[in-house]
Automatic annotation (TrEMBL):
GO cellular component terms listed in the entry, alphabetical order: cytoplasm
HAMAP family associated with the record: LeuA_type2 (MF_00572)
Subcellular locations according to the entry: Cytoplasm
GO molecular function: 2-isopropylmalate synthase activity; acetyl-CoA C-acetyltransferase activity; magnesium ion binding
An individual GO BP term: L-leucine biosynthetic process
Cytoplasm recorded as keyword: yes
Protein name (database record): 2-isopropylmalate synthase
Species of origin: Modicisalibacter xianhensis
Length: 569
């Protein structure tokens, strides 16, 4: 039996007739006016709305970030919102230059209560809305268009009158035709023109017209078309601040806001990390950081993003997704090998040219710009390669593996990652490294050594005491350097070792400094690596040889099993 096609119950959006649309040619070159609606639209969508303590913390944070317009609540709807607005005003907690904004329905008793809440405010935005969408007009309000306009203009007239009675406050008026996106465009313009005619904004004292995508219904280009069409047709454009208020029902709230600003909007209402009704309001952090990556300062301070994210999580009692753009716990983290390799090389180049433009592969911004550190960038699991392992050993433990050893060791880590199925921390990597290369002290161990040189000769004589299967032996060798002398001494003792490759470097500074030596040796026709760490470079190199010998005896491991000569080049 064929199931009915459920998609037939949905209507596609009708394109705006705007063949000469200009917005696609625009670029974002300055930030819009930002308004945070976290404490109203965000708050009304919370499982547990904010109490006074959480509201206080949120407001203080928004001010610190640099918001100049903050919708602090719906004071006629809830006692907490009312009390909080009073607290802000009575205790003079709103810094100069910051406007508090409050929302009210277009109903007289709610408007009166709103003005009670705002009495004595220094600077306030009164935001009134009514639903203009045809479905709401029919289903929710049962009004025709003129009646709908009357709801808006009556409310506007009352608000204007109350504002005039309190001239001590620097008032701004804001009107939202709710569900602008599904209101007929001609009607949206008609009702806004009527509201503006009632209020009487001027270019010196404009009003805000907020055009909400209360529910996102179409692709973002459609919203941009609607905004451009509206801006071209509305009567008093130069006396209006056109604001957008995108929600995220289709997951394109950020794109919708950006295109709407390109289409002429001056102001954006949204929330931090996109909390809000249903799928949320547009995320202002992403919008701001998107501007930042285009070389435009957003005029909001997200230079230390993690404490902001934690504070928002506390206030909203909702987690921020670990993959949230720019801020999630995992966004500056690469697990996969080829990404790690490219980041490591990009970071190395950056260290050489710290003032160049940001061009590190896979990282759209410098993690330092949002207070993140490089260490978090590379993490290791079974998807990782040698680059990530080598990066963590180098950055966090000062161990700079030679390339061939790094190939071998990454297989040790891969085996642990696959066995555990978990992330391997840098501490675990170091432990695996120590188990594999540093703790190999039996059956052979170096006890001590003494070097002497022949007068007028580059040759050195080495006398070393080694432990061999529990008993001590003294061995002697002479050669052009201490390591060669040690190899000679071992050979004379019946242990035949040939050095294939050798690297050394120091780790740490001053009295704490130590030397690390890496050898690749051939024993019984097998290549094997050893690593030694000691205060003296000679002892480190001899320990490295002993380590290689012990590893060989224990496992007969090759230098790089399963690795072809080609990959080792
Ligand atoms: C898209 C948005 O986010 S808009 C903001 C939404 N936020 C909230 O609603 C949060 C707080 N709201 C509330 O606490 C309450 O809804 C209140 C206090 C505002 C109103 O409460 P009540 O008077 O009990 O009404 P209720 O909650 O049932 O809302 C429906 C009523 O509001 C009317 N209404 C809804 N919006 C508007 C509006 N913008 N202008 C005029 N009337 C409106 C409806 O017609 C309906 O009236 P009716 O009861 O006469 O039919
Ligand atoms: C009140 C309005 C602006 C609103 O929150 C919406 O339409 O989403």
């Amino acid at each position: 039996m064929m199931l009915p096609d459920p998609s037939v119950k949905y209507r596609p959006f009708v394109a705006v007739d705007l063949p000469d649309r200009q917005w696609p040619n625009q670029r974002l070159t300055q930030p819009p006016i930002w308004c945070s609606v976290d404490m109203r639209d965000g708050n009304q969508a919370l499982i547990d709305p904010m109490d006074l303590e959480r509201k206080r913390r949120f407001f203080e944070m928004l001010v610190k970030i640099g918001f100049k317009e903050i919708e602090v609540g719906f004071p006629s709807a809830s006692q907490i919102d009312f009390d909080y607005v009073r607290e802000l005003i009575d205790n003079d907690l709103v810094p100069d230059g910051v406007s508090i904004q409050v929302l009210t329905q277009a109903r007289p008793h709610l408007i009166e209560r709103t003005f009670e809440a705002l009495k004595g405010a220094k600077k306030a935005i009164v935001h009134v809305y009514n639903a203009t969408d045809p479905v709401f007009r029919r289903v929710v309000f049962n009004v025709d268009k003129p009646q709908c306009i009357k709801i808006a203009t009556d409310a506007t007239a009352l608000i204007k009158q109350r504002m005039a009675e309190c001239p001590e406050t620097d008032w701004t008026f804001q009107y939202s035709p709710e569900l602008f996106t599904s209101t007929e465009l001609e009607f949206a313009v008609e009702i806004v023109d009527a509201v503006a005619a009632t209020y009487g904004p001027t270019s010196d004292k404009p009003m805000i017209v907020n055009l909400p995508a209360t529910v996102e219904i179409a692709t973002p280009n459609h919203y941009a078309d609607q905004i451009e069409w509206f801006c071209r047709h509305v009567a008093k454009r130069d006396s209006l601040i056109v604001s957008v208020h995108p929600h995220n029902d289709r997951g394109t709230g950020v794109a919708a806001a950006e295109l709407a600003v390109m289409a002429g909007a001056d102001r954006v209402e949204g929330t931090l990390f996109g909390n809000g009704e249903r799928t949320g309001n547009v995320d202002i952090v992403t919008l701001a950081m998107n501007l930042y990556t285009q070389g435009v300062h957003p005029q909001l301070d997200f230079s230390n993003i993690t404490p902001i994210m934690r504070e928002v999580e506390h206030c909203n009692q909702l987690p921020v997704h670990p993959r949230h753009p720019y801020v999630g716990d995992l966004v500056f983290t690469a697990f996969s090998g080829s990404h790690q390799d490219a980041i490591k090389k990009g970071m190395a180049e950056r260290r050489q040219h710290p003032d160049a433009m940001w061009e590190v592969p896979y990282l759209p911004i410098d993690p330092l710009d949002v207070g993140r550190s490089y260490e978090a960038v590379i993490r290791v699991n079974s998807q990782s390669g040698k680059g990530g392992v080598a990066y963590l050993l180098e950055e966090e433990h000062g161990i700079e593996l030679p390339r061939r050893l790094s190939i071998e060791f990454s297989q040790v880590v891969q085996e642990v990652a696959e066995r555990t199925g978990k992330e391997i921390t840098s501490q675990m990597i170091y432990q695996a490294f120590a188990d594999e290369y540093l703790d190999n002290t039996s059956p052979y161990a170096l006890v001590n050594h003494r070097l002497s040189s022949e007068p007028d000769s580059p040759r050195v004589h080495l006398e070393a005491v080694i432990e061999e299967r529990g008993s001590r032996e003294t061995i002697h060798g002479t050669a052009n350097g201490p390591l060669a002398a040690f190899i000679k001494a071992l050979g004379a003792h019946g242990v035949s070792i040939e050095i294939i490759d050798y690297h050394e470097h120091s780790r740490g500074q001053g009295a704490e400094a130590e030397a690390i030596a890496y050898v690749e040796v051939r024993i019984d026709d097998k290549a094997v690596f050893g690593v030694g760490i000691d205060e003296s470079i000679t002892s480190a190199s001899m320990k490295a040889v002993m380590g290689a010998l012990n590893r060989h005896l224990a496992t007969h491991k090759e230098a790089a099993p399963n690795v072809t000569a080609e990959t080792l080049k």
